[in-house]
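Hi C.,

You asked whether I'd gotten around to modeling the 245-residue construct. I have! Everything is below, sequence then structure, no commentary in between.
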Amino acid sequence: MVEYCTELPVSARHPWAGELVYTAFSGSHQDAIRKSMNYHTDNGLDKWDVAYLPIDPRDIGREYEAVVRINSQSGKGGVALVLERDYNIELPKWMHGALSQKVQGAAEASGVEVSPTVIKELYDQHFVEVAPEWVLASYDLHTEGHQVDGHFSVGNSQFNGQGTGPLEALCQALGQRFSCSIDVQQFDQHAIGSGTAAQAQACIEVMIDDQLHHGVAVAEDTSAATMQAMLSAFSRSQAAVAQAA
């Protein structure tokens, strides 16, 4: 309205009304905002106390959904917050850096701000999606003593492996078939939703022949989610090998 009446532009950083006043690009600022807002919510504070945001934007008719916006300066905390805020995807902290690298690469290549839609596309592309030959079709586990014998149907291939659990059995099967070393570095699993509609999200960080790879999968079955996350990570290692060749 001011611009319409005066025919003069309002600075993007003008106090209270500027377009970018309630926006953070800096990675350290984004991380501070994320932590402050989580603390604010978790502790039910009745007074606004968020770093870098002196007032609640809603008090003057503004929104803070777009407070964290991503460009080449942004840090891993900001990228993770966008994924949580817009898509309810919560990743373990050790995955924030891997995702941030992909997003920053896209930001540097384009030279412009990266939208939440693009962040989600990059997340799916680099951590979730797999070719049909790497989709877990079925599995059969037999436990005897402390050992699990597993039969895994993956795409059109069949694998057999042994280990102290399903994940170790799958790793043994893949390592034997493809003559590679597999060492799980990090693993996280948590429920999405509640009740009978709840699903399991599994995240994995695995070292395959001295190269670090990540995978994420969601399934109703916790074991299936775990094994599909492993297959997602492993498929990326095989794609890297094929590209190098």
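If it helps when you're writing up: Residues 222-244 form the longest helix (23 residues).

Thanks,
B.
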